[in-house]
Amino acid sequence: MSRSKATDSASKAPAGGQAAQARVIKKYPNRRLYDMDTSTYITLAQVRELVMAHEVFVVRDAKTGEDLTRSILLQIILEEEASGAPMFTEAMLAHIIRFYGHAMQGFMGSYLDKNIQAFIDIQARMAEQSQGLTPEMWSQFMRMQSPLMQGMMGSYLEQSKNLFLQMQDQMTRQTEQVLGAFGIKRPGP
Question: If we measure between CA atoms, which residue out of 6, 126, 20 comes closest to residue 56?
Fold first, then answer.
């Protein structure tokens, strides 16, 4: 997440036309979090609840004012991953780590962000389709959706892979052109 969706959306105006005000949470040196809106100390679990409720917030260092939102969000992810049902495999985490410092680091963040947004859009469409279903109808819907969803996700993943490979090829060609303009040839395999 670049900076934080919470801090980025703080400057956007809601439907009412007034600018949304980000909820400020201060982090003190003793690692405690203080919610300025409620004038109470809160836990990391309560910050997670704010995220789940789509609340707009920013976490600031109480002394320096530095934006700590990303580090708090990463801490929440770490706790979720350690709680028994991890989302990321060890191999996936190793791949992500390898992208740090790599020429493709900036691209990878954008790529993951767009893919997660596409997945959220698919999930929203499924939820929209299932509104008003009884438990029996929901059960039938899910049985029908399972093969459909598997096919849709398979197709989506294949398209995503192809897009990534095309972008990688394009970047390689552009790099070779730039280097060629300076008389630098790409070393052979």
Answer: 6
CB 12, CB 20: distance < 8 Å: yes
- The per-residue DSSP string of 126-176 comes to HHHHTTT--HHHHHHHHHHHHHHHHHHHHHHHHHHHHHHHHHHHHHHHHHH
Q: Give pTM, 2 decimals.
A: 0.62
Which residues have C-beta within 8 Å of that of residue 168, sequence separation ≥ 6? Answer: 104
Measured from the Cβ of residue 23, the count of other Cβ atoms closer than 10 Å reads 17
Q: Which residues contact 60 (CB under 8 A, 6 or more apart)?
A: 24, 25, 26, 27, 66, 67, 68
What are the CA-CA distances from residue 161 to residues 75, 90, 120, 144, 150 (Å)?
29, 20, 18, 26, 16
Q: Distance between CA atoms of 6 and 9, rounded to whole angstroms?
A: 5
Query: Is residue 56 within 8 Å of residue 20, measured between CB atoms?
Result: yes
What tokens were used for 164?
């990534």
Q: Tell me: the pLDDT tens digits for 139-182?
A: 666 666 666 666 666 677 777 777 777 777 777 787 788 877 88
How far from 94 is each of 74, 76, 100, 133, 165, CA to CA, in Å? 16, 19, 10, 41, 20
CA triplet 156, 94, 45: central angle to 5 degrees? 80
Cβ–Cβ < 8 Å for 59, 51: no
